[in-house]
């Protein structure tokens, strides 16, 4: 990890990077360089929270405490229910209400820069935690925004330039729940029957310290995979439940591990919500794919289960998401050397039926008003914005570009208050047929193609767009045969509001996304955090 002075210097280099200003003439560099800000007297908060990022130590495994990074929260104003503590290293859950005005006074007590991003929330650019707003030790940043999102489960995390993966890995993440009137009328299971399930994989040294990447470039390309599953920051989690219905808010807070959620006894899963909101109606799935950053809300009814019995939620076996190099290792599990391979089967969390409940709520047949966006709503029905995913020469990129702090390319400019069609395509995959022709990527290294790590790879990428949530219009898959796609395809929820979508090798996913209310730079990136830090991230300029 680089010392923060280096990062600071790097930041200043970005700020002084002339072409960035040219890309956005209205963009004042002086304003950009001002990294701290003050509370606005015009903003009247309903909720005021002090949030501090700091180093700490928590007990995760028996024996020595684990050194972590942590968000610590203190409620200065607002309902007492606004903050609920989570065990382990996770930050407090922020329980917000639609329409609330929220002020978060953020302090950095780490010895490296950091910035906080409210993943899934629709907020002004300056409040969105773009890495340009990172603050150093001892500095403060004031976030002020109105909660415009509907009821749902979101989260917050560090979004620091080239340090997102390490900071989130060390603990800088927490949940955000939002409620609204429409949701409250449903009388969904609440309080002790409304359970957060944060799933993360970690790796520990023999004296209980977090271990990150060990195997160099190959492991970064694949993404970090831990060998120990933490649920809400704890190992071997057993959750006692009663014989009644629960609302489970599952969230994949892992750097790059993709889970295939399924009950050990084959009971189907009933989804009631996706990343950003409740579904229109409950939907049933044999299993559900949950990629990094994705959330799914489940209705789980333990009625009729024997007190004393257990029900285990697993990640089931699947194939086809790992790098496939030039057609070799087809559908393989990739380069896992030890521990839990991506796509292997293992238990996640055990629910222990600890007692009987006398009554249980009924699953509402309709959950939310849902307006399906169609071609008729979009400004560019025939000219979708393209996001091409590629990993040529060990460099995960978007449209063959790497992240540049402030830069915006021609195809990344979006008029504010429009709804756009966006096509996300796996480019390496499309090139598979042309292997051996050399060149083709414009970098003159075509000779390496077809052997070693220089050749084309195609792997699944969880693509996340900041700002408003989007809808999935279509998923097209080519060359499905033998790819492992059939082991994941029934686990995608394509009907709800999303902010992250898993794009499989050979897949083309078309989405419709509104860009309303706010102008400025909004990030889009791969939420495989190793890929994000390697530069698989870009800006949209909404103006
Ligand atoms: Cu989870 Cu750019 O964010
Ligand atoms: Cu985000
Ligand atoms: Cu990726």
Brief characterization of the structure:
This protein has 543 residues and is mostly beta strands. The chain is built from 8 helices and 32 strands.
Plain-language structure description:
About 10% of the residues lie in helices and about 35% in strands. It has helices at about 5-15, 20-25, 30-35, 165-170, 180-185, 215-220, 425-430, 530-535, and strands at about 45-60, 65-75, 85, 95, 100-110, 115-120, 140-145, 150-160, 175-180, 195-200, 230, 240, 245-250, 260-265, 270-275, 280-285, 290, 295-300, 310-315, 325, 345-355, 385-390, 395-400, 415, 420-425, 455-460, 460-465, 470-475, 500-505, 505-515, 520-525, 535-540. It is built from eight helices and 32 strands. The strands form seven sheets. The chain has a six-stranded mixed sheet, with no helix packed on it. A five-stranded mixed sheet has the order 3-4-9-8-6. A hairpin with a 6-residue loop joins strand 22 (about 385-390) and strand 23 (about 395-400). The protein has three domains: about 35-180, Sandwich (Immunoglobulin-like); about 190-355, Cupredoxins -  blue copper proteins (Immunoglobulin-like, Sandwich), CATH 2.60.40.420; about 375-540, Cupredoxins -  blue copper proteins (Immunoglobulin-like, Sandwich). It is mainly beta and about 550 residues long. The longest helix is centred in the first third of the chain and has 12 residues, at about 5-15.
Task: Spell out the key features of this protein.
single chain; 543 residues; Immunoglobulin-like; 3 domains; six-stranded mixed sheet; 32 strands; 36% strand; binds CU-O-CU linkage
